[in-house]
Amino acid sequence: MTTKDTLHINGVLLEEAAVYASRKGVDLSSVVENFLSKWVSDNSVWDKIDNFPVSDEVRSLTRHAGSLTHNLDPEEERDEYFSEKYGL
Fold first, then answer.
1. How wide is the angle at C-alpha 43 spanned by C-alphas 52 and 33, nearest 5°?
2. pLDDT by 10-residue block (mean), the chain, 88 residues
3. Residue 16: exposed, middle, or buried by beta-carbon count in 10 A (0-12, 13-18, 19+)?
4. pTM recorded for the entire structure
């Protein structure tokens, strides 16, 4: 069964991920679905994620998303993004 749902994802990150997936010839929805499938089928997935090897290319896609433990409010996050991007 396939269904549509709404996810709230950083627009810049989503666009970069879509371009990256297109270059690699993969469907971004399939990548997300595959991750979610593994996530719900294995309770220890978070332990594995901490030690999961991530290429520099993929890691660069997350630079706008920030750290999962980084608790900035949206305005601070925006300011940090522009500061890093434009050296402000």
1. 70
2. 84 91 91 83 64 74 59 74 79
3. middle
4. 0.44
